[in-house]
Amino acid sequence: MPWSATKGEVFREMTDKDKVPEKIDLNEILAEGDALEESDQIEILDPADIGVGEDETRPLRTPPHSAPPASPREGREESDPYKELWVRARADFENFRKRTEREREEEAIKAGALMMRDLLPVLDNLERALAKAPPGDPFADGVALIHKQLQDALFRAGLRPIEAVGEPFDPIFHEAVVTEPTTAFESNLVLDEIQKGYLFRGRVVRPSLVKVSVRGGEQGGPGAGTLDG
């Protein structure tokens, strides 16, 4: 700084250098603040009212310090263990119900088969009596009516006769008690039925006692021999 400077210049230079503030009027500052509030208020706009161009995209904002929303997959993964337990319990119950129904049906069939075995001799005796009754006998007509009622009741319960005569011999349904050598029929064919066999609900209650054909010259057969041994 040159020594020829005046006293006023020295004071202004010191003021600019040291940034000494001038005297502050508080009333003026308050007045300016009120004017700003009245004229320069900030307008808050609704994002839905702001136009977005076709080629522009509006960025999604995530609130600060907030966890991202759980995805549907995460919700399904959390509920999957409970759903799996529910499905297993339902499957176990269905299996138990079906097994119980099968066991109940099996017991009913066994009980019905035992009853049929006890009633079949009665049915056989009625048929023998009708076979030996003279034609036109009124007593035989009454026996025939009783036989028909008993047979209908057993058939409604599930009893069915086994077809034997003219059928190939089947050891599941037939029991060969007599063999007859013949050249008129093929071998192992049921020629006659000695005692009728029956099925109850598809199961053999009693096999048919039958006579089976044997080709001439063949030895033995399904039931070689006769009833007399």
Detailed description of the structure:
- Strand 4 (198-200) and strand 5 (203-206) form a beta hairpin.
- The longest helix has 61 residues, at 72-132.
- This protein is an alpha+beta fold and 229 residues long.
- The model is unreliable at 224-229 (pLDDT under 50).
- 10% of the residues are buried.
- It is elongated and about 145 Å long.
- It has 4 helices and 6 strands.
- Helix 3 (72-132) runs antiparallel to helix 4.
- The strands form 2 sheets. It has a 3-stranded antiparallel sheet with strand order 1-4-5. A 3-stranded mixed sheet has the order 2-6-3, with no helix packed on it.
- The N and C termini lie far apart (157 Å).
- Helices cover 47% and strands 14% of the residues.
- Among the domains are: 73-157, Hemagglutinin Ectodomain, Chain B (Alpha-Beta Complex), CATH 3.90.20; 160-229, Head domain of nucleotide exchange factor GrpE (Nucleotide Exchange Factor Grpe, Chain A, domain 2), CATH 2.30.22.10.
- Count the beta strands: 6
The CATH topology of one domain = Hemagglutinin Ectodomain, Chain B
Structural category is alpha+beta
H/E series? HHHHEEEEEE
In what range is the share of β-strand residues? 5-15%
Whole-number average pLDDT? 75
Residue stretches low in confidence (pLDDT < 50, at least 5 long) are 224-229
What is the CATH-assigned architecture of one domain? Alpha-Beta Complex
Give me the number of helical elements: 4
**What is the C-alpha radius of gyration, as a whole number of Å?**
55 Å
Percent of residues in helical segments? 40-55%
Characterize the largest beta sheet: strand count, sense, and whether it forms a barrel.
Answer: 3 strands, antiparallel
State the strand order across the main sheet.
Answer: 1-4-5
Task: Give the overall form.
Answer: elongated
Terminal Cα span: 157 Å
CATH class term of one domain: Alpha Beta
